[in-house]
Amino acid sequence: MSDVFFIQRFEEYLGAEKKMSAHTVKAYIADINSCVKYTQENFEINTLQELSHLFIKSWLSSMLSSGIDSKSVRRKISSLKTYYKYLLRHKLVEIDPMIKVSSPKISKKLPNFIEEDKMKDIMSNIIDENDNKNVLANDILLTLYHTGIRLSELINLEKRNIDLAHSTIKVLGKRNKERIIPITEELCTLFENYINIETESPFVFNTPKNQKLYPNFVYRSVKDLLSQHSTIRKKSPHVLRHTFATHLLNNGSDLNAIKELLGHANLSATQIYTHNSVERLKTIHKQAHPKGSKKNL
């Protein structure tokens, strides 16, 4: 299958030239293989020239009918569009069927975040210096919350990119774009401890077996720690990124500054946090204003 549809070459391209993370590459290839498998099994499609937009639309429709949410389907469409751009560039196909494929609309959900008071409680109760695994999880959580960096950026954070003298860190984000993030005195002390650990690893954080962190390890660490001290429904590392941005905005930070700290390419991606802020203002208004509650009308 991979040889016929040039998927292996595309996979190498995503990693080597597009510099996508291993996790993203894996997702792209899984999406493409899923489409190929569906069209082969249902329509006996065996070449790219036969794979028209009608067959792709049938695949997308089958997923929506089976209950897969629109956001996931949109991601699969994005994977295929990137794939066909690659194929056209290398003259492996003559027609791009994705031109006639549109993405389903999705309702924008407000990002989940942890309230400031709850976050303070979590941070004041999670340190257990007698448990190395707990300490590592604690330090990972603090780093994610204090900096708002992505999971992949945390994993690849190197000691040489920690500038304690200027209280900053340098991270490599999406599209290989570097950005500088200021860090608190608390985080400087935390990083100093890791920098002084004698190890051959260039990375700040490593597993208890001194191996490079991996996504599932970080996810489990954060989830287990938050589960011990919080009842929030979402307990992923990305929730801490949302929490970082929301708390900054609620405390008067400029939206453009938050955009730069998060490494967003467009301000529109950052503006979703204003909705959380508006909802918070509505709650405060309802509680504080004499006419804010229906029972006072």
Kindly list the characteristics that best describe this protein.
297 residues; mainly alpha; DNA polymerase, domain 1; hpI Integrase, Chain A; 2 domains; 3-stranded antiparallel sheet; 3 strands; 4% strand
Q: How does the SSE layout of this entry go?
A:
Blueprint: H1 2-5, H2 7-16, H3 22-43, H4 53-65, H5 70-89, H6 116-125, H7 132-147, H8 151-155, E1 162-163, E2 168-172, E3 178-182, H9 185-195, H10 215-229, H11 237-250, H12 255-262, H13 267-270, H14 272-288
Antiparallel strand pairs: 1-2, 2-3
Helix pairs in contact: 2-3, 3-5, 7-10, 7-11, 11-14
CATH topology of the largest domain: hpI Integrase, Chain A
Order of helices and strands: HHHHHHHHEEEHHHHHH
CATH superfamily of the largest domain: Intergrase catalytic core
Q: Strand tally, please?
A: 3
Q: Can you count the helices?
A: 14
First-to-last CA distance: 68 Å
**How many structurally independent domains?**
2
Anisotropy-based shape: globular
Name of the CATH first level of the largest domain: Mainly Alpha
